[in-house]
Specification:
Strand content: 35-45%
Number of strands: 13
CATH topology: Jelly Rolls
Structural class: mainly beta
Number of helices: 2
Protein name: dTDP-4-dehydrorhamnose 3,5-epimerase
Helix content: under 10%
CATH superfamily: Jelly Rolls
CATH class: Mainly Beta
Distance between the termini: 33 Å
Strand order of the largest sheet: 1-2-10-7-12-5
EC number: 5.1.3.13
Largest sheet: 6 strands, antiparallel
CATH architecture: Sandwich
Organism: Tunturiibacter psychrotolerans
Function: Catalyzes the epimerization of the C3' and C5'positions of dTDP-6-deoxy-D-xylo-4-hexulose, forming dTDP-6-deoxy-L-lyxo-4-hexulose.
Family: Belongs to the dTDP-4-dehydrorhamnose 3,5-epimerase family.
Radius of gyration: 17 Å
Shape: globular
């Protein structure tokens, strides 16, 4: 497994090793020991899967009280995945990074995206359809669910909307009511534990 750095501290692209021949391929997509040995300590408690059509934009989601770290993998299709650092004590606070994630050919790398707790997450579907699977470090907590508007002017995320050929992204009614970044209720500052 290769762990690749990204423009955001603690957000990582992960490439599991794939073994293949003329019959197909095999990959160990997740192993708790390997993940921890790479310095990515996480205990996953829930798996979520979504199916979406082209132009669907989900996010930007995060939870208060029971924040979720996410290990994101595209099972089919092609998405543009975004992480936003909501950690006020972080040098990357308010910064975002986007990643093209897709089902690769057997000759290319598998890629997963690790997004730690206290980040907002969203994605735009660029293919006709896409299935996305993500493991989370905490259960869904409806009372703590929050959303930032995908097109917030302060964040100024450069979504690849040109791939939609002039059709506006399809956003859920709930996501359309997301808050602006400067008005959003953000996770509390994490105070280091004293030993």
């Amino acid at each position: 497994m290769q762990v690749l750095e990204t423009p955001l501290r603690d957000v990582k692209l992960i490439q599991p090793q794939r073994f293949g021949d003329s019959r197909g391929w095999f990959a160990e997509v997740f192993n708790q020991s390997t993940f921890a040995a790479a310095g990515l300590s996480a205990h996953f408690v829930q798996d979520n899967q979504s199916f979406s059509v082209k132009g669907v934009l989900r996010g930007l989601h995060y939870q208060l009280g029971k924040p979720q770290g996410k290990l994101v993998r595209v099972l089919s299709g092609h998405i543009w995945d975004v992480a936003v650092d909501l950690r006020r004590e972080s040098p990357d606070f308010g910064k975002w990074a986007g990643f093209y994630l897709k089902t690769e050919s057997s000759a290319d790398h598998l890629q997963l995206l690790w997004i730690p707790e206290r980040f907002a997450h969203g994605f735009l579907v660029l293919s006709d359809t896409a299935e996305v699977l993500y493991k989370t470090t905490n259960i869904y907590h409806p009372q703590g669910e929050r959303s930032i508007l995908w097109n917030d002017s302060t964040l100024a995320i450069d979504w690849p909307l040109e791939a939609l050929n002039g059709i506006p992204p399809s956003v859920s009614a709930k996501d359309a009511l997301g808050r602006h970044f400067l008005e959003a209720e953000l996770p509390p500052v994490e105070v280091p534990h004293l030993v």
